[in-house]
Amino acid sequence: MIDKLIEKIEKTGNPSVAGIDTKLDYLPSNTIEKCSTLKDAANAIIDFNAELLENLYKLVPAVKVQVAYYEMYGTEGMRAFEETIAMAKKLGLSVIADVKRNDIGSTAACYSSAYLGRTKVGNKFFTPFESDFMTVNGYLGIDGIEPFLKDCVERDKGIFVLVKTSNPSSGQIQDKLFENGETLYESMGALVEEWGNSSRGKYGYSDVGAVVGATHPMQAERLREKMPHTFFLVPGYGAQGGKADDLKVCFDKHGRGAIVNSSRGIICAYKSEKYRGMSVGAAAAAAAIDMREDICKAIKK
Amino acid sequence: MIDKLIEKIEKTGNPSVAGIDTKLDYLPSNTIEKCSTLKDAANAIIDFNAELLENLYKLVPAVKVQVAYYEMYGTEGMRAFEETIAMAKKLGLSVIADVKRNDIGSTAACYSSAYLGRTKVGNKFFTPFESDFMTVNGYLGIDGIEPFLKDCVERDKGIFVLVKTSNPSSGQIQDKLFENGETLYESMGALVEEWGNSSRGKYGYSDVGAVVGATHPMQAERLREKMPHTFFLVPGYGAQGGKADDLKVCFDKHGRGAIVNSSRGIICAYKSEKYRGMSVGAAAAAAAIDMREDICKAIKK
Questions:
Q1: Which residues of A touch B19 (CB under 8 A)?
Q2: Binning pLDDT at 50, 70 and 90, where does residue A185 land?
Q3: Which of A187, A198, A220 has its CA nearest to residue A152?
Q4: Best B104, B130, B146, B268 residue to mutate vs chain A (most A CBs within 10 Å)
């Protein structure tokens, strides 16, 4: 699966992913005013996302859909999540389900069925929230990861394991030093690199990627060196404060090896001064182009 | 919220929780045969859970509902999750949403809205999957935990943070030694104890609990000593191999401080030799009573 993503990145000339992390608050106020139930909210979010996707699908190789923004609207929200994924896939976009799931093996297998694999009912198989990639948390070690790896092989999928997250307090646990001189994020990174050993594609990257925040450039640089076969999903650009010059260390010498996410910067672009007067979709497209230029310029430096 | 749970435990004389982690495979074969869609599966699971809950609600203080077993059936599965929680609450059971969510602060706030807090649409507030407790993963540090703590205070809720999980490979990361001589699970435990500082109830325990597996008694004993104000949710009893004598170290000298989960051992009891011939509900009740006796005997030793 990672090869397909890399090829879509080359085709669009854009190593960035649009985060379709849509909260009702992000919608135009006249739309919000019309909503009074969870179903209304879910439908409004679906329409908003449809406009975003129609304007973005030629510009970005992939979308990341953060499930928390849908779970908060309950079962109706999950319907919006499902429809958003389906619309994105129909438009040819790679879909990253940003769900950060984690559990013991038997339970991780259920999560994997939901997002990467299949669920059997009677003699039929269903793929409820089928995505191309999902994010996972590796705190439980390999037996909580294996079910995902199995589906990566059997169904041509990929995962991104949290290594160094973009939030301010990520260092509280992740930067602590083990007695062997490695930090926790480095140890997690080494495991991720190992878990991907058997799934390397033609560009040298495996189906087991890592989440590495744009907001911690020194750590990202260290990880890039130590994880030569691990593709990075890089959150934290834009609204969270990450700059293109900071995150260029996530890329290899061929300009590959990472994809950078922006959520609010793209989906709420229509609210910003810079894109004033534009529609939701046109502003998102303009912001996606600006982001692409910003990142590509930094990588080429 | 922790005081209410402790009082329910005292009232039922039962420090155990039934894990309603229902997969279609767990249902009687004649029921499975009638299902051919995700909706059928969800409805069959709701009926099965209703029978379990009606037979368990006088025996156990709480249920733990593992969302992965519902997510695998897509939006229909989430409807079954929602209905299961609602049925359990209606019967007066405490509900622990076992979701192990984790993310950066703004996103964690959305998860918290889904399970502990409220979601605003127009002028109305909704509580989609409202539970009394939820499980969370602390890998991102305090700013991924704060939104949950806020809802714990404002809405009288509780969380259980993963500290030492029950799965075989939990040691791969969690048992690694930091340079200060503490393992990762001990460091996580110390943070959890600290995060609960301001929410201690009348029994000395806080609303910020910890997940500590029954399968690692030495580590559990160490944690019980170091985390005197942290209530433990203890998975791993029964099907996963944890024994009552192993997990008694999770309790304090008053026999408080922990609640032990069993999922398959209770909900699939009707399939076991021991409860042969009993209905799903009767077998679950018998297994819940046997578990209560087993644990209470071990604690009193």
A1: none
A2: very high
A3: A198
A4: B104
* CA–CA distance, B275 with B268 (Å, rounded to integer): 10
Task: Name which of B37, B178, B191 is nearest A121 (Cβ-Cβ).
Answer: B37
Q: What is the pLDDT of residues B216-271, one digit of tens each?
A: 999 999 999 999 999 999 998 987 788 999 999 999 999 999 999 999 999 999 99
Residue A177 C-beta-side C-alpha neighbours within 13 Å:
5
- Using CA coordinates, name the residue in chain A closest to B181: A179
ipTM score of complex: 0.97
CB B21 within 8 A of CB A103: no
DSSP classification of residue A61 = S
**Confidence at residue B238, expressed as pLDDT on a 0 to 100 scale:** 83
Q: Which of residues 170-209 of A touch B (CB under 8 A)?
A: 170-174, 176-179, 181, 184, 187-188, 191
Query: Nearest chain A Cα to B32, which residue?
Result: A122
Q: Are the beta carbons of A267 and A26 closer than 8 angstroms?
A: yes
Q: State the amino acid at position A16 in one-letter form.
A: S
Cα separation, B212 vs A144, in Å, equals 16
Out of A4, A23, A89, A100, the active site residue is A100
Residue A146 has pLDDT above 90, yes or no: yes
